[in-house]
């Protein structure tokens, strides 16, 4: 099982979700990521990856990988906030 760490920005976003089913789906995807199966994921540049969750408003999780053993969940969002979220994720990944 891979180590998963969560940035404070990601924790705050996840804690603020009122969509309980969406939160459960996100947590299930994080578990799959820890097991080595990221699912529907693509690179958005600067060593940042976007994990798409096809539920609700189109949730996204942005993460980076460090030394092939640890994933840092940077920030989360949805399709509507995608452009801003990618910019923030790249900034956070650069400043780890």
UniProtKB/TrEMBL annotation:
Q: Which residues form the PH domain?
A: 1-22
Q: Which domain of life is it from?
A: Bacteria
Give the matching InterPro entries. Answer: PH_domain, TypeIITA-like_toxin_pred
Matching entries from NCBIfam families are given as: upstrm_HI1419
The record, for PANTHER family, names: SSL7039 PROTEIN
Q: What is this protein called?
A: Type II toxin-antitoxin system RelE/ParE family toxin
Which species expresses this protein natively? Polynucleobacter paneuropaeus
């Amino acid at each position: 099982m891979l180590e998963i760490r969560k940035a404070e920005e990601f924790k705050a976003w996840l804690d603020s979700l009122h969509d309980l089913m969406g939160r459960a789906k996100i947590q299930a995807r994080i578990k799959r990521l820890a097991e080595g199966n990221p699912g529907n994921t693509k690179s958005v540049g600067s060593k940042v990856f976007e994990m798409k969750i096809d539920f609700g408003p189109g949730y996204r999780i942005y993460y980076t990988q460090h030394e092939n053993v640890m994933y840092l969940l940077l920030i989360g969002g949805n399709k509507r906030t995608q452009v801003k979220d990618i910019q923030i994720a790249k900034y956070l990944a650069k400043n780890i």
